[in-house]
Structure formats: structure tokens, C-alpha cells
Amino acid sequence: MTNKTLLCIVGPTAIGKTALSIAFAKAYNTAIISSDSRQFYKEMTIGTAVPEKEELDAATHYFIQDRSIFDDYSVGDFERDVIQLLPKLFTQNDVVVMVGGSALYEKAVTYGLDDLPDVPHEIQQEIKAEFENKGISWLQEEVQKNDAEYFETVDIHNSHRLIRAIGIFRVSGKKMNELRTGKAQKRNFNIVKIGLTAEREELYERINKRVDIMIDRGLEQEARELFPHKNLNALQTVGYKEFFDYFENSYDYDEAVRLIKRNTRRFAKRQLTWYRKDESVKWFHYKTRHTEIVQRVSKKLMD
């Protein structure tokens, strides 16, 4: 039985995962792996809520702004890189912390990826052509029509993810959950999952405040600088795409901010839908003192 443990901190956006991860990193004098798939990119700082300098200085972080939006970096690449990194980190400490709200990336490390069918290039191109002609709302409608369960958890603003789902359905005629094997990859470390949650209205208030802070810090200017590259997959992200549409005169500034808040709330709801299906997550209210959570988890690790 291994004594090495990957401690995963999960939950919806704006709930306070970063602060809790640092509390654990300090308690165990260990490193933090970010599984936030948008914080990988060095060009995206404000809109992805990259940890502050003092937070980054409080512990060694991995997978924070170490990629470019022009890099082709998949969830499979992330799984490979983390699994290769962990043995090195476990030589330094028995516990490593992983934190982030990108559920598929966390699942890839803790559970493994399902072996989904390949989609022929010509089918991918057909779907992409329809997307370019009809827009992302068409992708969303196609996925919702063919795989309503997957639609409840997927990031509906991630065109790459939606195109993939449509392609898999066209090739196999099967929904995502029908193709998932339910067999976890064997990992040579223990996995403990800690989730933070809040009452819906409290969470929505925190999200709205976070968006206001991002606006004050210059999210609009950051989006303007990235606007020439708006079709890159990395930029199909809440907080950027709404401003891109504003720059194209689809609506006014106030509407852009309103949509960022609304779409972030919807994203948080999808995150919770995903994580609540995972019975291995031990949930704590976000107001629970970090010292109490650390103590309770430490007791569990020693049992």
C-alpha cells in the first residue's frame, strides 16, 4: 500500500479553491499542480484569475502560465505530463496538491481518459464548416439534441469540445456516457478529493464580485490584445468571447459584462453537476476554516 497521496481540491469557480490549496501546501510543505486548463496560458492572466504573486510565491506551482495560446496542448498531454511529474514530486513529499475547476483535466489524472473512437478528418471538417457558417449556437443545439446528459456538464462555449462530441456521435451513433468504460486507470498513489461548496445565491454573488474585480483590473484591454486571435480554441472562454462579440458591435459594453456574469454562473452550475456525480469528493462549506479542513483531512490520511 502506497503512502503517496494526490490531494485534489475541486469545486465551482470563485469558491476559494486557490486559498485552500495554499493552506494545504503550507501545511505539508509541498507543491501545487494547477488543473485549470485556461491558467496554462501566459497570455491569459486577468480573465482566468491566475493566482496573485504572493499566492504563487507561497508554494511551488506547476502548469501555471507555462504554455502559449498558440500551443496545441490537450487534456491527454496534461495527463501524460502530470503522471510523469508526480514521481519526482513524491520523492520530496508524501502529499502533492492538485487544484482547479477543469473537471475533465482532474479526471484525466485521477481516473484516466476513456478510449473514444477516432473521428475521420473529413467529418471533422464538415462539422467545422457548419460551425463557421451557423455559429456556436448550432453546435450547442446539436449536442443538446443528440446527447442531453453530456450537454449538462460540457463547457458549452468550448467549440473544440462540442465539435468532438458531435463527431463521435456521427461516427458511432452513441452518446458519451455509453462510450465511457467505467474502468479507472490504476494509479500508484492514493487520491483524496476535497470539494468546496456554497449556497447558490452566495456563490452567484461571489462570481459577480469576481467579474467586477476582473473588469477593474483590465479584462477589456486584455481581451482587446487577444482579439486578433479570437478563433483559437484557448480563447473560446467565458470572459473573452463576450468581449470579442462586443468589439464586433454585437451588443454594448454593459451587455458584455452582464453576459460574462451570466455565463460564469452557468459554468459554475455545470462544474457542480459534474463534481456532485463523484461520490469520492468530501464536501466542505467554503466558509469552513482552512485549519479545520486541513486537520480533518490530515486525520483521514493518517487512518
Describe this structure in words.
The chain has helices at 17-28, 53-58, 75-92, 103-110, 121-134, 136-146, 148-151, 159-172, 176-179, 200-217, 219-226, 241-247, 253-275, 290-302; strands at 5-10, 32-34, 61-62, 95-99, 190-197, 281-285. It folds into 2 domains: 5-114 and 181-302, 3-Layer(aba) Sandwich (Rossmann fold); 121-179, Histone, subunit A. The mean pLDDT is 93. By secondary structure, it is an alpha/beta fold. Strand 2, helix 2 (53-58) and strand 3 form a beta-alpha-beta unit.
SSE string, helix = H, strand = E? EHEHEHEHHHHHHEHHHHEH
Query: What CATH architecture of the largest domain would you give?
Result: 3-Layer(aba) Sandwich
Which oligomeric state applies? single chain
In which range does the helix fraction lie?
40-55%
Q: Which residue ranges are poorly predicted, with pLDDT under 50 across at least 5 consecutive positions?
A: none
Give the class from helix and strand content and strand pairing: alpha/beta
CATH topology of the largest domain: Rossmann fold
Q: Biggest sheet, in brief? A: 6 strands, parallel
Q: How much is the average pLDDT? A: 93
How many domain units?
2
* Overall 3D shape: globular
Task: Give the DSSP E fraction (strand runs of 2 or more residues).
Answer: 5-15%
Overall strand count: 6
CATH superfamily of the largest domain: P-loop containing nucleotide triphosphate hydrolases
CATH class of the largest domain: Alpha Beta
The value of Rg in angstroms is 19 Å
Distance N terminus to C terminus? 13 Å
- In what order do the strands lie side by side in the largest sheet? 3-2-4-1-5-6
Figure out the total of helices: 14
Site (Interaction with substrate tRNA): 102
Subunit structure: Monomer.
Organism: Nonlabens dokdonensis (strain DSM 17205 / KCTC 12402 / DSW-6)
Binding site for ATP: 11-18
